Amino acid sequence: MFSAHRLLSPIVAVRQDEAKALLLMFLYSFSVMTSYNIIKPLTRAQFIQELGAGNLPWVLLASGVSLSVVSCSSTPRVSRVCRPNQS
Question: How far is Cα 59 from Cα 49, in angstroms, rounded to an integer?
Answer without folding.
Answer: 12
